[in-house]
Amino acid sequence: MLEKTPSDRPDAAQRPEADTVGPHAVPLTLRVNGMTHTLSITPETTLAQALREQLDLTGTKIACDRGACSACTVWLDGAPVCSCMVLALEVGAREVTTIEGLTDREALHPVQAAFIEHDAIQCGFCTPGLIMSCVALLKRTPHPSEHEIRAAISGHLCRCGTYPHVLSAVLAAARTEEA
Questions:
Q1: Fewer CB near the last or first residue (10 Å), C or N of the chain?
Q2: Residue 30 and residue 74: Cα distance in Å, rounded?
Q3: Residue spans of beta strands (DSSP E) within the chain
Q4: What pLDDT, on the 0 to 100 scale, is given for residue 179?
Q5: Residues 87, 73: contact at Cβ < 8 Å?
Q6: For the segment 1-50, what is each residue's pLDDT rounded down to a tens digit?
């Protein structure tokens, strides 16, 4: 094994400047649900934490905090992601949509209404993430099969076991969107 001698190591003056931030709070602009927000966050802040703690968008749930349950699912430019696995600083100019952004505050989204109608909500902790993934599926595939719905929710953990009700709700919402 070769050891580096002091002459082999670049000193601080020779190192290229890196775009580093932190460890202190830094300003961040996020576009969430069509609105622009300026925050002050530390570099290790996840998108889920920023949404809940700084923007008071508590529909995004943090359960496992390691991307294993999908309760924290939001959209980045329309694609579902686990917000506990995305650093807020990584979002950049992308649009974030949370469960609060699905409605116009006048009426529930058809998938939300179908979840209620088909009893797909038990304790409700996993519900926002499930709904975000199901709405994204219907945007991509307006008439999904059961197999496609199962694939879309495969990363979601529901301790209450409402999966059959979720399937029924999504199929009903797809029919509602047709009408």
A1: N
A2: 14
A3: 26-32, 35-41, 73-76, 79-82, 95-97
A4: 45
A5: no
A6: 445 455 555 554 555 555 667 688 999 999 999 999 999 999 999 999 99
Place of tokens 């980045």: 76
Q: Determine whether 171 is exposed, middle or buried from the number of CB atoms within 10 Å of its CB (0-12, 13-18, 19+).
A: middle
Percent of the chain topping pLDDT 90? 80
Q: What is the amino acid identity at position 43?
A: P
Helix 163-178 and helix 127-140, axial crossing angle in degrees, nearest 10: 40
Give the pLDDT confidence of 68-82 residue by residue, as tens digits. Answer: 999 999 999 999 999
Q: Which domains does the chain have, with CATH numbers?
A: 26-101 (3.10.20.30), 110-178 (1.10.150.120)
User: Both tokens of residue 140?
Assistant: 């991509």
d(CA 118, CA 169): 5
